[in-house]
Amino acid sequence: MSLPITTGRIQSTLRGYLDNEASGGVVLMAAAAMALAVANSPLAEAYFHALHLYLGPLSLQHWINDALMAVFFLLVGLEIKREMLDGQLSTWSRRILPGAAAAGGMLAPALVYLAFNAGTPASLRGWAIPTATDIAFALGVLSLFGNRVPASLKIFLAALAIIDDLGAVLVIALFYTNGVNLLALAGAAAVLALLFFMNRAGVKTLTLYLGLGVALWVLMFTSGIHATLAGVLLALTIPIKLSPGAPEASDEESPLHRLEHLLHRPVAFIIVPLFGLANAGVSLRGTSISSLGDPHTIGVAAGLFAGKLLGVLSVVVLLVKLRFAQLPAMANWTQMTGVALLCGIGFTMSLFIGLLAFDDPAVQDKVKIGILLGSAISGVAGSAVLMASRRKSSRS
What we know:
Number of strands: 2
Shape: globular
Number of helices: 14
Order of helices and strands: HHEEHHHHHHHHHHHH
Helix content: over 70%
């Protein structure tokens, strides 16, 4: 089923969301390129020293990865909740195509990674690294084509990536949690219960939710469960004003919409680029063509490029051919193939999962190279296919 573009404020809100994500993706590309350049320049020693400089209880890199990224996950949670309750994913008919494509786009890359690492049990922990699509990066590339790509296809990609993010959050919670502190976890559960009680009681003051959200983060951090998940849990408790049959509630009526709008620009233009700057820097000294064949590297790269393409496109073809769904409005199969390739751009969430999966810096570097390689090939191939589609449509 295609995702219809509704009229009214939801259209302008969605356009603003897509524009912020796309523009943020361009900034993220620049930050990643800068990190890679600095890590392979005479400034490399200063770069890595700064990342490991302690500011209080955490290093600079951990403040970015554990604290600032909790705000990123808060925004992810807000987007998921809004889309599921009051947006483009509010009905099953709208969820089926991007939802099934997201599931296929997570399963196939994981299987591809496992195929390359089956002989090394210690490497299997990285199976989830190539399963995530970077919405900012992918939409950033797609935005370069302007109105030459149907808006419905951009909505499809955004919806798929949002569902993909939900899957990644569940994967992190279930498979990348170690040594739980039960007392701290009980405290986090109590704070979460209080947040839900406030929601049910009709409390709409955002400062109260955010204050308790900080306490939730501290307790989650202490518990051993990755603290960034506190952002998603907090998002689930933020009140939303539903508007059946209408575009959207106003910001004044809906705390969720107000907070989401407040966070979009800081997350897109500051937090995510900072994460890219802090984590994309990998030294390529000593890297040879033969070293690119390392199972970690090739498994991640092939998972992103081949796995995402196979998983997303095969599911879409199956659902459309069986008439369970339709292609997004005004889109053709060549364009859908290009978008399926862009789903292989797995930068932010893939890097995040890679850091959770492996503690060894040498293995982390191999994973990062695989992420950069797979994402770059996917981006270039997807762009080439979309350009070919543009030339084809211009001749017809």
